[in-house]
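If your schedule permits, I should be very grateful for your opinion on a structural question. Thank you for your consideration; the sequence and its tokens are set out here:

===
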Amino acid sequence: MTYTTTSMDALRQYGDELADATVATLFERGEVGKFNTLMRYVSTAGAPLPDGLPDVAREYLRETSTPPAWVDWGEMEKARLFFIDNNVHISTALSFASMPACYLVPHVAKLLSATHSLEYPSRRMAETGQFTVYLMQPDAFEAGSRFVPAVQKVRLLHASIRHHLSRENLWDTATFGTPICQEDMIGGQLLFSILVLDSLHRLNIHMSVDGAEAYYYAWRVVGAMLGVDQAHAPEDLASAREFLDTYLTRYMGPSEEGVNLTRQLIDLYEEVVPGTVFDPIVAALIRYLIGDTSADWLQVPRTAWDTAVKAAPSLLGILETIEDRSPLGAWALDRLGHFTALFELSSLTRGRVMHYAIPEQLKADFGVSSTLGRTRRWTPPPPLRA
């Protein structure tokens, strides 16, 4: 599939028909509060829906309770094993590359600023981390898992943002298109998939072709469940590269909202890093992964660690060599990665479960191992040529 300005513009005109209709009806009937209250008790797949749940919500939950019929479960298992083998690296890429890259798209940064939690700034990263951990569990799509309800709630959250911005005339649709439109949803899916793979490659993490393709496949499944129109979503890594390059070329640049969100992200992780001596590593790692031009747009501070962090790929390469050659070393490093990822997530969530409720209003100040092996090492597809 070839992506053009015309085809990308078309994707800006619509959102998610099913979720949008559900949210509109809940607001029309004044049932959002009741829905949020009752849905706090729905956190696992297959659990009985509570009495009193609005009919429109019950029908939505029934219709979205299963993954797409085309899912290849063998590929999903490969993706899970890839995640287990690289969990701490994936968490690093999500935090220090994917999220800052979102802030490089000014209209997306504006949206994120409108919906950022007033309670504590780690909410969005906590939701993202928790969501990914749920996805990569072996029982992610089975009864008792937390992933499917999380997807259903996030999809309604996106629809509620579209509802608020459109109803309250807080969004310039003529200029920016529909808020959280199909183009932005596909772009977000790629920022959390192919950009993560790019970052792992930049960090010198050994990835097999099968592992990289499976990880991207898992996010295709996620995109479908979040309401992404699969007729327009990239099917493989090569077409994903074409879409993402085109998308970022169309929009990326500096914005006040992007700068503010980046500052919050840096402050958050400086709190997570023990002590203060190593705080500058956070900014240095972001700058290394997204590049100097993007980092300057986001006003990521330059630090004395900018040069030192460039040694990270060599260090990680040594650790992965140990992992490849020593079963004991592989076990120790996998456990260290597991506990590091758990520590990061627990610090972000502060021990809480993210419920992804439908906001009844927006912020007042808003303005416009691996069994996959190491053979056939994956390298990023070439960038789109102008």
